[in-house]
Specification:
The two termini are 20 Å apart. It is elongated, with a radius of gyration of 18 Å. The chain folds into 2 domains: 12-63 and 135-180, no CATH class; 70-132, no CATH class. Helix content is 49%, strand content 6%. The protein contains 9 helices and 5 strands, in the order ααααβααββββααα. By secondary structure, the chain is mainly alpha-helical. Strand 4 and strand 5 form a beta hairpin. It binds iron/sulfur cluster (2 copies). Residues 66, 71, 112, 114-115, 120, 122, 126-127, 130 line the site of one iron/sulfur cluster.
């Protein structure tokens, strides 16, 4: 029988509703289950699952990350972003960024000044960290603190983790082939 289209969690409201049905400390139980795959095994499955999930989620219908997170800025970002706003580097740094004690520089958010009508107004030139968010493909997915912080923020992370668990359950029960999961439009 053909697998029905999957109902992805697509935005912050749907994610909040989904999380409200779950145990508060669900992530701890999930991390224990993922150990069955091992860190490299999880990374391999995330590499397979992630593109499918990302293709199914329209970030302009969510923008949750742009409302609360402060993306780290690279040297390349700092060389590019001030001119977009017609500012010199010093003025840009003073008015648009925050610095950590370790010298990292972050774009101020809450929400980000470039978020306009749910979309990034500098999308083609957005910071590298924004383009890579939610950083699915960095090594050791299951051990990265930020992945679990973003599990309750980002529908992409949430859906990827749910797929991992469903796949793991399917393997144990001999039923689910992740390749059959097809995202709904
Ligand atoms: S990356 Fe995640 S939190 Fe950000 S807009 Fe897309 S789905 Fe929402
Ligand atoms: S620069 Fe664009 S993608 Fe990055 S946080 Fe701001 S609005 Fe979002």
């Amino acid at each position: 029988m053909e697998t029905p289209p999957r109902a992805w969690v697509k935005n912050a409201e749907e994610l909040r509703a989904e999380l409200s049905k779950r145990e508060v400390d669900e992530a701890t139980a999930i991390k224990k289950r993922l150990k069955e795959l091992g860190s490299e095994g999880v990374d391999a499955r995330v590499a397979a699952i992630g593109p499918k999930v990302e293709a199914a989620i329209d970030c302009t219908q969510c923008a949750a990350c742009c409302k609360v997170l402060e993306p780290e800025l690279s040297q390349a970002d700092l060389g590019r972003l001030p001119a977009i706003e017609g500012l010199g580097l010093v003025e840009f740094a003073r008015t648009r960024t925050e610095s950590s004690n370790s010298g990292k520089v972050f774009l101020k958010a809450g929400p980000c000044a470039h978020l306009k009508g749910g979309s990034c107004s500098i999308y083609a030139q957005r910071p590298e960290s924004c383009a890579d968010f939610p950083h699915l493909y960095r090594p050791h997915f299951m051990y990265r603190r930020l992945i679990w912080e973003h599990y309750t923020l980002c529908p992409i992370v949430f859906n990827v983790v749910q797929c991992l668990i469903e796949e793991l359950n399917g393997k144990l029960e001999g039923e689910t082939d992740f390749g059959n999961l097809s995202p709904s439009a």
